[in-house]
Specification:
The chain is an alpha/beta fold. It has two domains: 72-255, Alpha-Beta Complex (Spore Coat Polysaccharide Biosynthesis Protein SpsA, Chain A), CATH 3.90.550.20; 268-340, no CATH class. It is built from nine helices and eleven strands. A seven-stranded mixed sheet has the order 3-2-1-6-9-8-10. Strands 4-5 form a two-stranded antiparallel sheet. Strand 8 and strand 9 (203-210) form a beta hairpin. Residues 21-57, 61-67 and 320-341 have low confidence and may be disordered. The chain crosses the membrane at residues 12-29.
């Protein structure tokens, strides 16, 4: 029987020692906290193609020459029942129209769990050119943090944060109307994220914009949803807890006032009353109405003598500049436009 040489025994011992050291290091690493300072472990959920992977057929990928310069607007349209799909409302169409006219982004992507269904039939009188608007297949997150997601609105909020972290851009609800795209671009390029609140110590996720890879979306996903998801509380995770986290890490974003807090959420119906109680809106980047009314159509927009009506007519007319005259001048000018549609 051949006795192993001294050199062979040393090599075996070295391998064994290296193996023990590796196991010890891995055990120590797994026991360490994942979040240190402002570095947050990001919960990615569904896997998205990398935006700078130009070989991908993902429509969100930028051009090879300028992969990061595209301004993308994201809408989410999840169905409550895919067997009975529903489309957007007339007011939702005006939201999309306001983005087309006043922001002119490189692309508008509508992320939907039913991409075979066209949800914009209600927009036929307002929008005829859908260039740059695409339906992007999106898979709902059924659970997060080990808890089942109860509301489709929670799923949409989570999807927005994922999209902003991976791709950047502006995520909007369909009840938000873009007014000043030039001002938005200035603010957007000056901050990692642009946020808004509704006046009740809550961040409002109806309007949120982030640079690709910004800390804020990943922080909220990890620290609010993964760590503390409350499926039965409507706005806790995206509003209350998010407000707390942002004020602990204000370097992650910038609050743009006026979008969702003028009027405040509790006073939102003041914007719909008139003509005695008019609210200024021309100086805002955008207006979040919180209004989902099936009764609106071209005729009702023409007759609406409220701040909401003034703004809607201005958008339908293609925007007449922000230094317009009185609301009645707007109404008389737009009346002819609406009559011709």
């Amino acid at each position: 029987m051949q006795i192993p040489s001294k050199e062979a025994l040393i090599k075996v011992l070295a391998v064994v020692c290296l193996f023990i050291i590796t196991l010890t290091f891995l055990s120590w690493s797994n026991s360490c906290p994942s979040n240190q300072g402002n570095s947050f472990q990001f919960w990615a959920g569904p896997t998205f193609p990398k935006r700078n992977d130009t070989s991908s057929d993902d429509p969100l990928v930028g051009t090879p020459e300028h992969p990061e310069e595209r301004l993308i607007v994201h809408y989410i349209w999840f169905q409550r029942d895919i067997l009975k799909p529903t489309g957007v409302l007339f007011l939702d169409c005006i939201s999309v129209l306001s983005v087309m006219e006043n922001l002119k982004p490189d692309a508008i992507f509508v992320h939907t769990d039913l991409p075979s269904f066209w949800p914009f039939d209600a927009c036929s009188q307002l929008i005829t050119d859908w260039t740059g608007v695409e339906l992007v297949p999106a898979k709902k997150n059924l659970e997060i943090g080990g808890k089942k997601i109860h509301y489709v609105e929670h799923e949409a909020d989570i999807m927005k944060l994922q999209l902003l972290w991976h791709y950047g851009g502006l995520a909007l609800d369909f009840d938000v109307y873009l007014i000043n795209g030039t001002k938005f671009r200035e603010v957007y390029h000056a901050h990692p994220c642009v946020l808004t609140y509704d006046g009740n110590d809550r961040i409002n996720n109806g309007f949120v914009a982030c640079q690709k890879g910004a800390v804020y979306p990943g922080m909220i996903l990890q620290e609010s949803y993964v760590a503390d998801y409350r499926p039965n509380e409507w706005v806790y995770n995206i509003g209350v807890r998010t407000f707390q986290l942002f004020h602990q890490h204000k370097e992650t974003g910038y609050i743009q006032e006026g979008i969702s807090d003028r009027p405040t959420y509790d006073g939102r119906y003041e914007f719909l009353t008139g003509p005695g109680r008019k609210h200024e809106w021309r100086d805002k980047i955008a207006h979040h109405s919180f209004l989902h009314d099936k009764g609106y159509n071209l005729d009702s927009v023409k007759r609406d003598d409220s701040s909401m009506g003034d703004m809607l007519r201005w958008i339908v007319n293609g925007g007449m500049g922000l230094n317009t005259n009185s609301s009645m001048d707007i109404a008389s000018t737009v009346a002819g436009v609406i009559d011709r549609v």
